[in-house]
């Protein structure tokens, strides 16, 4: 019996071009737009390899083999763009905020400066409340409760001016910082990175925290941003949109990924880095610290954040082993875990940092979504049972009541 050889995961340019039936320029354009993942060929660094699944997907589309339903399904799985946005994008390995390189901005800018850029306004301040006090809850729990309280009382965002919504967002972000960090009199007028450094009693970490806040402020149409935009499309309050984003961010495949990196580091300290990585992979656990579909050549944010940080030997060893065994570069989750370790930040600090930063991006997307006035309401591709052709629809069990006209669109 002849065994059919499977196609390798990474293809050379000749095979990719043969599958796609296009010119080399078209292949390179697909890579630069993030549609096809690429990485250097270990055997010849001058050449690149291209991800098989991406190549096959685009080749199938070119041959007209995909239905509209298939296109729509794949669009939300690292596929084609599904919403127009001028806020941010990843292009040619760079993260751009309204056309400006986020890594360049991180060298000098504060989060407030980036908020002004993304919101198209003067740089806001995120005011601390003189009346706020520590709640005794964990930072994440306190933050969720603070936004939920505002979401229950704040006005809907629909029909209100951009400037009013910007002021409301700044106030909500300030309240979130109060809840997650606590407030001291000296912190009320500080930029957010200084508030973090003060609350965590890590003054030497201030500049690295500033960098991290800038680099995490937005990242195109990620899961939490898309969730916030869906909420915004209904006209919900700004606080409700931020609450949706924060709730989505807490997932282990999103903002919670740095916790998995820290768990891997703890395991590495027990049994060694290589043994920990191999054990992790043997149990089919993805390594959150490595690789990113939008950065075939390596996560630019990781390099920018680690530029001024001297990695501890344990992290340096883990990075080398992980990149060798996986063939993928370290990413922003690795960098956040390293930042927390270098400055001995409190437990949960990486997620707190991520959450407070990303509120700026969510706000920019909420403002953009409100300007469209459109409801985001996709259709589902139903896969459940259907009544048989000869089956009659039974009478309702209860008498139908008069129905009022509804403005709901489902």
From TrEMBL:
InterPro entries: Citrate_synth-like_lrg_a-sub, Citrate_synthase, Citrate_synthase_sf. This is Citrate synthase. Pfam families: Citrate_synt. CDD domains: citrate_synt_like_2. Residues 385-410 are annotated as: Disordered. One of its GO terms (cellular component) is cytosol. GO terms for molecular function: acyltransferase activity, acyl groups converted into alkyl on transfer. Keywords: Transferase. The lineage of its organism: Bacteria, Pseudomonadati, Pseudomonadota, Betaproteobacteria, Burkholderiales. Belongs to the citrate synthase family. Residues 400-410 have a biased composition (Basic residues). It comes from Variovorax guangxiensis. One of its GO terms (biological process) is carbohydrate metabolic process. The keyword Isomerase does not apply.
């Amino acid at each position: 019996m002849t065994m059919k050889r499977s196609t390798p995961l990474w293809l050379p340019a000749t095979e990719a071009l043969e599958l796609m039936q296009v010119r080399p320029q078209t292949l390179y354009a697909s890579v630069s737009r993030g549609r096809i993942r690429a990485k250097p060929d270990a055997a010849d660094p001058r050449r690149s390899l291209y991800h098989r699944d991406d190549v096959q997907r685009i080749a199938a589309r070119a041959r007209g083999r995909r239905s509209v339903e298939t296109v729509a399904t794949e669009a939300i799985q690292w596929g084609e763009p599904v919403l127009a946005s001028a806020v941010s994008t990843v292009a040619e390995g760079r993260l751009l905020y309204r056309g400006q390189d986020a890594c360049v901005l991180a060298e000098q800018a504060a989060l407030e400066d980036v908020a002004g850029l993304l919101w198209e306004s003067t740089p806001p301040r995120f005011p601390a409340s003189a009346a706020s006090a520590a709640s005794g809850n964990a930072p994440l729990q306190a933050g969720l409760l603070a936004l939920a309280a505002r979401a229950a009382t704040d006005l809907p965002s629909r029909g209100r001016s951009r400037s009013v919504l910007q002021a409301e967002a700044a106030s909500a972000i300030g309240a979130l910082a109060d809840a997650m960090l606590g407030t001291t009199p000296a912190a009320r007028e500080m930029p957010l990175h200084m508030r973090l450094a003060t609350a965590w009693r890590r003054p030497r970490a201030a500049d690295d925290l500033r960098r991290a806040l800038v680099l995490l402020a937005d990242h195109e149409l990620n899961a939490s941003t898309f969730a916030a935009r869906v909420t915004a499309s209904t006209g919900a309050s700004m606080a409700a949109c931020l609450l949706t984003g924060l709730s989505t961010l807490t997932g282990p495949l999103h903002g919670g990924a740095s916790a998995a990196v820290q768990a891997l580091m703890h395991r590495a300290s027990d049994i060694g880095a290589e043994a920990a990585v191999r054990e992790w992979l043997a149990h089919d656990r993805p390594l959150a610290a490595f690789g990113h579909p939008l950065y075939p050549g390596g996560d630019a944010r990781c390099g920018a954040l680690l530029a001024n940080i001297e990695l501890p030997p344990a992290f340096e060893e883990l990075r080398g082993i992980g990149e060798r065994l996986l063939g993928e570069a370290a990413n922003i989750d690795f960098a956040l875990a390293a930042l927390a370790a270098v400055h001995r930040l409190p437990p949960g600090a990486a997620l707190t940092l991520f959450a407070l930063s990303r509120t700026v991006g969510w706000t920019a997307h909420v403002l953009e979504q409100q300007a469209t006035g459109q409801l985001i309401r996709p259709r589902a591709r139903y896969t459940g049972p259907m009544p048989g052709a000869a089956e009659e629809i039974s009478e309702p069990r209860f008498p139908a009541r008069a129905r009022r006209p509804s403005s709901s669109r489902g």
